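forwarding from the other thread:

> can someone predict this with zinc ion?

sure thing
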Amino acid sequence: MVSQNLNSEAMHYGLDIGGTKIELAIFDSQLKRVESWRRPTPQKDYQALLSAIAQMVNEADEKSDTKGTVGIGFPGYLDSLGRSVSANIGSVNGQFIVRDTCAKLGRAVSFENDVKAFALSEVRGGAAQSKNNALGVVIGTGVAGGLCVQGQLYKSKQNVSCEFGHVSLPAVLQQRYQFPLRQCGCGLIGCVEAYLAGPGLLWMCSHFDTKYTSVPMLVEAFRNNEAKAIEVMDVYIDCLGCYFAQLTLMYDPDIIVLGGGVSNIAEIYARLPNVMQKYFFNGVIAPSVVAAKYGDSSGVRGAAILGRDNANSAVVQN
Ligand SMILES: [Zn+2]
């Protein structure tokens, strides 16, 4: 509820544009979440999407009685020319979405991949607070990540750093578990995402000839000590540990923060360090792997932080 006069306080809006819903959350200057709401994402019509964003931001201005900063997370990236690319929201493909949104809203707007926004949120007051280098990994319907170095998101030439859901699953795992090379939604074959994302875990249930038809059903059976569920989860945690060990050899983070649906399977955290250790050469120590502090809220929170940072740096430059 917004009851106080917020005129004197800077407010920060984080938006998370998903394939089905847009969420806007208003944060105060201390990054306390004040209010949030959602509306359906216009998926096919770009102008309708811009209008939906503008309408939500205008509502936020009215509710908070100020003109807040705006940061937006979305499931995609901006290519080297600044055009948006997203597999989930077809209408944004090839559009100069930052320019168009800034013009529509009459203020600076920051755009970032939603998982990178998640990683930033967790390093700024979240589970990776005070860590120099933190790797955020979200495993839900897909697998993606974001790297924060000294509290800032690592930026790269084509904005595809940490798209490590689309590297190949290690051959050692393919061979050990007799996995077929699966087609990935990205067009490549054998991607990590095709095995380790939620749908991949469900696929493992059929690969190992179980009766489980959903991930919650598998997890419940695992907690009830059903042998088949334990077998699948043992394989899954082995694959996850191997993958996180590889990410550690690439990024050497102080901590790995896990988000997405898989992060809610509490049993994996205690086992991962030992599993990861099997995949290191001598002398390498597994970083801790922890659950996100802000969970599903980290996307909008990280987006709001980006919007705030961007506004602050603009003031400095001026
Ligand atoms: Zn892929």
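The longest strand covers residues 33-40. thats all i got for now
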